[in-house]
Structure formats: structure tokens, C-alpha cells
Amino acid sequence: MTVYSAIALALALQTAPEAATAPTSAQITETTDDSDLAALQDADSEAAPSEARPTILVTVPQPLVLVRTAVTPDTEFRTVDHGQIISSQDISPAQFVTITTPVNNANKYGPAGASLWKYLVGDKEWWCWRNTAGFPAWNRPTDFYCYNDTDGDGTFDELRENPGWSSSIRHSRFIATTLGTVERARGKASYIAGGQLDYVEQVAIRYDAPIFGSVNADGIITKGAVSFDVIAGVGPQAAQPSSSLLYARLVDPAGMDKLFSIPVALDENGKGKTEHPSGISIEVERANADGTVVMKLLSGYPTGEASLMPPIPRLSFESLLQILQARGDI
Questions:
Q1: Distant-in-sequence, close-in-space partners of 174: CB < 8 Å, separation ≥ 6
Q2: Contact call for residues 51 and 22 (beta carbons, < 8 A)
Q3: pLDDT averaged over consecutive 10-residue blocks of the chain (330 residues)?
Q4: What is d(CA 190, CA 97) in angstroms, rounded to the nearest whole number?
Q5: C-alpha distances in angstroms, 58 versus 35, 212, 224?
Q6: Do 1 and 327 touch, CB atoms closer than 8 A?
Q7: Partners of 306 in beta bridges
């Protein structure tokens, strides 16, 4: 479980019975790994009175995307089972620049004329390139190379490498949730605004399962939570196994990887509703002991430029501990 998903769980739990606690104190601007939980705990231990505590913002490095299609909200409740995709939207990179003068070894780092897409790390803009010439039959995902122009003079000053093989978003050509490490290349690349890449992919909502709760005599889960996954990637048509047996084992039939989870807390009647900062809104009428759920999708990502994982506001560390303990993660 990532910190981003865990915080979403904690926030949902705050709306459920016996889960309301005060928000924590620290202002977190970049949190992307479970190891950061210790830092959150240290910040919480030095908390000011709850009325003086500022809002937490947890952000994840990610590309700026263009959401190209809208979802059609459900007008009636429907029953879905584990692993069922309930909606899908087309996405692509939102903004581009083009390399005019490359660094040495341009075949590796990006040649002249290559389009780079915008990648956001907090309030800092990077521009990323990747060799996708062999896609979708590549033996393994290729590396990302991301540039930053620190002074805005049209010449890149920093370069990072994100090994594609270690990226958690294996089915996407442009989505990554880490910037990578410093890469040293000879020369400096210059660029101009504008460019284009035909990287149309999908972001989808997939039902996962109940997380925890009590089962009443009618077989309905109460005072618990169910989880939906947000997944993204090239989609099932493009996600074809290559000749590499190792990589073929990594190919998901959906052609998408999990970005984060959206929990829906269930009340004493087994009902629940959540409105995620992404714009996704889900209402649950009933979660059954067999793992199915009766739900309604109220909204998806709004069309236009967006962050797939927008900043999560507010965090109760006590609630985070409670949900992690309930899941058995700690």
C-alpha cells in the first residue's frame, strides 16, 4: 500500500463510525513512499492544538495529463464483482516541448526533434522523453529521461534517469510516479515550446474487494469499507506479450497498472459514499459477503488537463494507523 492510498483510506474512515479524529499538524508537500510514515509520525508527535493545525498536502510525482473523454454517470445501482472494470477514460500527455539541440548520445537521451511531455514534481516542471520505437513488442519497458530548465532560458540544466524496468507503471508509455536519479550527460540540451506525441492511453476504475467490516444476518457488510482501484496504461488492445518470457509474465490482460485505491467507508447500514479529490465519486448501496458490491458511479475524472493523483488534503495519523492495523499491514 502506498502512502497516497493509505491516506485516502484514513480520510474515508473519518466519515465512518468511531473513526473521527483530529487532523495532524505537519505540511507535507511530497510523500511517495511508505518509508515516509515515520516522518509523518514524528510530525504528529510535535502537533500544535488541533484548531491551529494546517492542512496537509501529499503530492505524487506524475505527468500532467489530458483527460480526453468523459464518463457516463450511472442512473441506477449495479452489481459488480472483484476485478470488474466499471469505467474507462482516454488520456494522453497534456503539454510538450521539443528538443532543438540534444546532449551527446542523443539516441539514449533524446534526439533533435524529439517531443517531451510535462512531468510535475510538486510545483517544479520537468520534461520527459522515452524511446518507444519497439512498443508494444519491446522486450522490456525502456528508461525515462527527464529534463529541467531551472532558470527558464531555453536550455535544460538537470537530467534524471528513471529505469523503465523498475517502474511500477509498466503498461504506460508516459506515466511514472518517481522522477529517478541524477544522470550525467555531456553537453546541454536546448528546446522550444510545443510538440506532439500520439500516446493515447486509458485510466479506469476497477472494483477490488471489501477491506474489512462485520457481516450481518442478511449477508451485508457493515461498519467497514470496500476498495476500488484506479488503474492506467495502454489498455488491453495494445498490451500484447512480447517474445520475452520474463516480460510476458508481467503483462496484465487489462493492459493497465494500479495507481492508487479509493476506499468507500460503510456505515451501520452497509451504505457509503465517497468523493475523491480527483473528481471520482462512488456510492455504495450494499457490499455482500460474497465480495460483490452494489454501487453507482456518480462521476469520473473531469475532462481537460488534470493530475491523475491530485494532492490529498488533511490526514489523521491516528486514523491512518487504525486502517493499517485493520488491514494487517502493521
A1: 63, 92, 93, 117, 128, 130, 197, 199, 201
A2: no
A3: 67 54 35 41 43 60 96 97 96 98 95 97 94 73 92 96 76 89 93 95 96 94 95 76 47 81 94 95 97 98 96 63 60
A4: 10
A5: 14, 25, 25
A6: yes
A7: 65
Helices (DSSP H) in the chain: which residue ranges?
3-13, 37-45, 106-109, 245-248, 317-327
Task: Specify whether the CB–CB gap between 184 and 145 falls below 8 A.
Answer: no
The number of beta carbons lying within 10 Å of the beta carbon of residue 307 is: 17
Closest CA to 268 of 79, 16, 20, 77: 16
**Phi-psi region at 165: left, alpha or beta (left = phi > 0; alpha = psi -120 to 50):** alpha
Q: What is the pTM of this model?
A: 0.80
Assigned C-alpha cell, 112:
533533435
To the nearest 10°, the Cα dihedral for 59, 62, 67, 68? 180
